Amino acid sequence: MRQVTRTVREESFWQGPVPHPENIKKFDAIYPGAAKLIFGQYEKQSNHRMKLESFTVRKGIRNETVGMIFAFVIMVCIIGGGIYLMAAGKDGVGLTTSLAGFGGVITLFLVRKRSSDKELREKSPKG
Hints:
The chain is an all-alpha fold.
């Protein structure tokens, strides 16, 4: 007589922000209302995270706007100074100052654009 042995192995995997539904049932059986507590805590955490992200985005936009305003004021001062120098008879220094102001702004714009494009490429889904 031949003996046959069969082994059955079952594995499961769960990944998510809340426990597996079976575990939630078990928690609720041990501690009635546990499911409500778990989902309530998850909801509070989600709301908290969304508020933080919203705050961070708003502050980032504000900081960029203030930075652009300061850059514009500085650029106007540098170019205005260059124009004043040219009007005062110092054409070479005035032209150099004005061009440096324009060059600085253009360089900052291009560097920022390249950095922004790179960030978008890194965040976009690979397809």
